[in-house]
Amino acid sequence: MNVTIEREAILRILGRTQGVVDKRHSMAVLTNALVEVHDKEISIVATDLEVSLKQTAPAQVGEPGKAAASARTLFEIVRESSADEIRLRTLDNQWVEVSYGKSNFKLMGIDPEEYPGMPKAGANGAQSATFEVAAGDLGEMVRKTIFAVSADDTRSNLAGVYITKSKKKNQIRMVATDGHRLAVIDRPITGTLPENGAILPRKGLAEIGKMLGEETGKVGITVSGNEAMITVGDSVLSMRLVEGSFPDYQKVIPKETPNRMTVSRDDFLHTLRRVSILSSERARGVRFRLSEGTLELSANNPDMGEAKEELAVDYGGAEMEIGFNAKYLIDVLGVLPEGGNVEIGFGDELSPGVLSGDDAGYRYVVMPMRI
Amino acid sequence: MDKSSGTNLKSLWEQTVAPLRERLDSTDYTTWIEPMKPLAADDRSVEIAVPNRMFAAWVEENFLDELSDSWVRASGRNSRFHFSWGDVAPQGELFGRPAPAADSGHETAEKLAQELKQSRRRTTGLIERYDFTSFVVGPNNQFARAAAMAVSGQPGTLYNPFFVFGGVGLGKTHLANAIGHSVLAENPSARVLFMSADAFTNRLIDAISHNKVQEFKNRIRRVDVLIIDDVQFLAGRERTQQEFFHIFNALYERGSQIILTSDKYPNEMQGVEERLCNRFGSGLVADIQPPDAETRVAILERKAKEERIHLPLDVATHIAERFDSNIRDLEGALTRLSAWASLNRCEITLDLAANLLGETAPSERRPPTFDEIEARLTTYFGLKPGDLKARRRTRKISDARQVAMFLMRSLAGASFPAIGEHLGGRDHSTVVHGCGAVRKRCEKDARFRAVVETLVRELGCG
Predict the structure, then answer these.
(1) What interface predicted TM-score (ipTM) does this complex get?
(2) How many CB pairs (< 8 A) connect A and B?
(3) DSSP A168-201
(4) For residue B460, which of A191, A317, B244, B421 sits 20 to 30 Å off, Cα-Cα?
């Protein structure tokens, strides 16, 4: 193998592999990236067996071939260079040579045949569904749900975003929850969705977010067997679906929320950030005291002190007091557009609140906490 | 749950704990009362957040009574206490409460108390069948038993520590267990811990290797009654003795009853630090001697009744004559006899017993030789070989030497000059004086007498 590639291109590709390669080093081979050179192009594969990413770029090919070496080291070598072009060459015994300008690096590689490579979507004759979604919509959906995915390893069925059919025709619905809050978003698609839905892992979803970047136009997603695959430009991302069944999320979205409050997103967010400084570190509890036209937020940390702030809101419901984890609200307000309004509907102090913004396809449900 | 404001609940709680701040010592208050946070309250219950389950159990056990009294006074409500720990408690769940993580949960105070009681029963280490009712009393153990019953009536105050010593298989362990059972019967929430000195050592080693010495010590330091069996096995284990010394002092200061058993008198235990021996002997020392013939028969009859064995009196008398020094052997003989009888489907008779266990009452034993007496005393008092014959006159050696004279005279029946000759060429008047001194001291000093009796028994049994 002997290939020369623009620094800019390979730096971007190697940078993207860093999020995919196995950080836990459970298998040493997975810390490597696989380099494949065909005529006129180079492709680099990284995988942790859950999520696999293959990126391709044009290159000046001297001699086709394969090599595999540490993804981290390759990235660092390229990052520190100031040359315009980088040359990669295989030597004997799996050694890989990286050179640019007057610099020369020799890396101990591994046998490229040992590298797992990309899973083949649609293998095993499994049923598959393919749909297309606008790149902008997909990016927004990821951004507005991923923060609600559970970080709790013991609830593996919540460790991803559920995709399913929306009630409206030709719409996809994405749902994420950690058991305390839940984000639901609907967006139009063309094509077919998997019949029983699928749970995409958080890590794969995060990679989708990064891949989309400035991408415009449509993006295709294929769900097949226990893999989902998405192609964006010159990159193909494949991820293993999360096993288990997603809980009945529709049941927990309140049908009626008699006490509705409308507030400026910016004011609300900033007030929450200030008041929660004095909430306890773990629970981040903030007390809401609602009365006509006013929301009083207060927090109290026995070790530090207390905070209180009044906020003018549009509220005509019953007077009530309810507590929330400030983080759960700050998270969602952070992904809503600046300058807009948000509406929160409350039942009573033990029932979930439902938050929505100007985006009719997005809802966020959050359980209160007892304070 | 509480419809009134949380500030209200908080001030109620402050009123509740305020009197405890004055009453408890400050460490207890900051460790156990301060971390509790009220979560919610209604007319019937009050929910308290605690750091973990262990904490809840401890609070339930030690402070709940005072807390609830104080709560009633502050709130006017007679509420049940609920404890929650971990962080799932205050945050509402969309899909119902998930299976609680190992470190979170919710329990009512009553349930905790119940579980605690059960687990305590499991973890006392007491042997179930060793209680006072199954202990056969005779002149040999009358004093020890009476003392044990007194101790169990007023643990920690009357005789502390209570040290039982006596030969193998005479009922030391039985008596020590009986105290534990009796204390528990009186006060089911008392923390009683029984373990052998060996088990203590092993657990300590385990704790050291897992870096958990502090937890181990804390656990033991919390007990109300600590029973250590066969404490002579601490001999030569310096680290164990050191830790035990501190635990002993902590328990003693706390007013916990300490009960020790040993086959030696406290100060005679070799390889045990003097400061420990002194403490062991600082309370009441009671000895158990081998049972007399009547007691042995009574023991056999009780055992036979327990095991539903038909044991004729003449057989019981025969066994009791044959095994005169050790109850374990005595009971072993009965077991052997009844096993043989039931396997061969025959009655237990005197002939059978004579055949199986040997014909005669214990043979006339030959008196011990000078060398045997010297060897036994050397090990018992922890001397170097030859010390008895040497000129040295430290207190320990001269005590041992006098005991040697007494034993050689009374057991071996030797002449004063012969004894003097053997013990380093001493004058016969020295020996006469020595024997008299031992006899006199036995009259005045019960502990000393017990030591001498133990030695007489051991040497007499060959």
Answers:
(1) 0.75
(2) 49
(3) STTEEEEEEE-SSEEEEEEEE-EE---TT-EEEE
(4) B421
The alpha carbon of residue B180 is apart from the nearest alpha carbon of chain A, in Å, by 44
Quick one: B275 and B308 in the same domain?
Answer: no
Structural domain for B258, as ranges: 142-288
Residue B45, helix vs strand vs coil:
strand
Please indicate, yes or no, whether residues B335 and B277 belong to a single structural domain of this protein. no
- The enclosing domain of B442 has a CATH number of 1.10.1750.10
Among candidate residues A244, A248, A135, the one with its CA nearest the CA of residue A200? A244
- From CA A110, how far away is CA A33, in angstroms rounded? 10
| Contact criterion met (CB < 8 Å) for B93 and A287 | no
Residue B361: pLDDT above 60? no
Compare all CA atoms of chain A with the CA of B38 and give the residue at the minimum distance. Answer: A371
Q: Which among A252, A283, A370 is the nearest to B40, CB-wise?
A: A370
In a domain, B364, yes or no: no
Residues of B in contact with A157 (CB under 8 A): none
Specify the DSSP element, H or E, that contains B192: strand B192-196
Same domain, yes or no: A233 and A279: no
Q: Which CATH number belongs to the domain containing residue B346 in this structure? A: 1.10.8.60
Query: Does A371 fall in a domain?
Result: no
Q: Copy the structure tokens of residue B340.
A: 């043989």
Position B125 in a domain: no
Residues in B lying within 8 Å of A, measured between beta carbons: 1, 5-6, 37, 39-40, 87, 89-95, 98-99, 101
How many domains are contained in chain A?
3
Structural domain count of chain B: 4
**Do residue A312 and residue A352 come from a single domain?**
yes
Query: Could you tell me the mean pLDDT of each successive run of 10 residues in chain A, 371 residues long?
Result: 94 93 76 92 92 94 94 94 93 93 93 84 68 94 95 84 92 94 96 92 92 87 91 91 91 91 96 92 87 94 87 93 94 95 90 92 92 70
Q: Mutate which of B95, B97, B103, B104 to test chain A, going by most A C-beta atoms within 10 A?
A: B95
Which tokens go with B79?
């509420």
Q: Give the closest-approach CA distance of B94 to chain A in angstroms.
A: 5
